[in-house]
Amino acid sequence: MVTQESKAVHVTAQEHGALIYIVDDESLIGEVVLAILKLEGFQPKFFVDSQEAYEAFAEADPKPSLLLADFIMTPLNGMELIERCKQISPDLKTLLYSGNVGEEIVEFYNARPDGFLSKPFLPKQLISLVNRILGKSVTKST
């Protein structure tokens, strides 16, 4: 006999409400990404300051499921932020995006993002890549 407590249910990452950090010093872009992810059922949190995002990540419990970062930011660029966050949480899923550099920029860093998007990107491209990075489904006990 299977009890409700032991029954596993497969739900999409959106239904699971994955916590996602968005870091972009261009607030308009960050707010748009935030709105797209909220509409898809995620729990996004937006930061305009990369150092503040790093500090929040270091203190977060639980850690976010995914970190989305623009490349060109100060004081930490997106790859520096990804590297520092992965030092704390090596299994962190990450997505780098940029309108100024291509994916080849990651070759100059030790960490590798799980995905890359060139700006401008369509909402469906963002959601598709986020879902791919997070996996098609997660197991949630009910």
Low-confidence stretches: 1-15, 137-142
CATH topology: Rossmann fold
| Overall tally of structural domains | 1
The count of DSSP E runs of length 2 or more, i.e. the number of strands, is 7
Strand content: 15-25%
Globular, elongated, flat, extended or rod-shaped: what is the shape? globular
Which strand order spans the largest sheet, edge to edge or round the barrel?
3-2-4-5-6
Name of the level-1 CATH class: Alpha Beta
Supply database-style keywords.
142 residues, alpha/beta, Rossmann fold, five-stranded parallel sheet, two-stranded antiparallel ribbon, globular, disordered N terminus
Would you give an account of this structure?
With 142 residues, the protein is α/β, with parallel strands linked by helices. It has a single domain, classed as 3-Layer(aba) Sandwich (Rossmann fold). 35% of the residues lie in helices and 23% in strands. The protein is built from five helices and seven strands. The strands form two sheets. Strands 3-2-4-5-6 form a five-stranded parallel beta sheet, with helices on both faces. It has a two-stranded antiparallel sheet with strand order 1-7. Strand 4, helix 4 and strand 5 form a beta-alpha-beta unit. Helix 3 runs parallel beside helix 4. The chain is globular.
